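Data card: per-record layout.
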Amino acid sequence: MAVRQHGHVAELVLDRPAALNAISTALARELAAEASALAANPSIRAIVLSALGDRAFCVGADLKERNGFTDADLLAQRPVFRRAFGSIIDLPVPAIAAVSGFALGGGCELALACDLIVADDGAQFGLPEVGVGLVPGGGGTQLLARRIGVARAADLIYTGRRVTADEATALGIVNRRVTGQHTARDAALKLAAQIAANSPVGVRNAKHALRAGIDLPLSAGLDVEDAAWRATAFSQDRIEGIRAFAEKREPRWPA
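The structure for this 255-residue chain is written out next.
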């Protein structure tokens, strides 16, 4: 796992290209550790999840590693994987997946764990777990249904079929569709920089309101939003934002 810094944007890079960035136990541990460290870093305002190699974003769990597993081994790996996927879901700042090539199984779930997905011409998405005697276990059944609806998610999960970047965009899986091969990373970094230019307090609180309120009744969700508004409106960011607007300059957000 590699981490690259781009100002207030951090890039988490899956770095097993020879294995098509398959998630081994070791990679899962590294991902959880690096994501948790970034979550605790107040200078980070957005995160891009990308991958090395020309063929794949990530093809999911390392089945070659699992081939020799006993039931006890598989059971021991389970909390490691849950922490890895959870570390992306729980990031307090927006996370953007830059998908080029295959995003299958756990790879698709890593992308779904992000707030936004950017995909280029070569991207393919799929949750093929039922074809190998499993179910999506990295949040796929929950995250995909929340993103595109239960009926559409059922179609993809029950069949295990792959979808192209165009179909994924039409379904609502992909937020930003860019043309060309291997262009998703640059587009994702550009989007992250755009997000990072906004109020750090505002963006963090907006993400919290979105995530915390989505499964609540509307009245309770509006209370979550109100708390987020208050936490932002009475911050130094609001003072600087209004001052910058009045002075017709870019904001200089407090560190």
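Known properties of this structure: The radius of gyration is 19 Å. The chain has a mean pLDDT of 97.

See the next section for split statistics.
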